[in-house]
Amino acid sequence: MSAIAANPVPATTSEQARRAVLLVVFCTFLGSAAQILMKLGADHAKAHPGLAGIITNPLLIAGYGLYAVVTVLIVVAFKDGELSVLYPILSLSYLWVTALSFLVFGDTVNADKLIGLAVIICGVAVLGRGARK
Taking the complete model, does pTM exceed 0.85, yes or no? Predict the structure, then answer.
């Protein structure tokens, strides 16, 4: 068997960059879920104070575990994409956390928060557009 047949042709640079962007966007969802789990765990920890209450808290453990997964996936994405494009995409987590906080905890969403989220979305879009030039 030849070396060419054993090793498939690697993805093109643009395919790798697109996958890296999609992976980072996926990480924003996972990271936001981790933050919600940690907030739920923190609320639970109020009834179980002290170090033992923290290290035995399944919601906190799940949240930090999910953050660990996100960290590994981000490293994988950074390997194939531009840091100046990928890192700002992580700010989309603010959007998901705001929405989830509203749905899960009943947090308020006011005009200032909506304006801030719109600025974040516009910033990510502008940076993404600049990467294509």
Answer: no
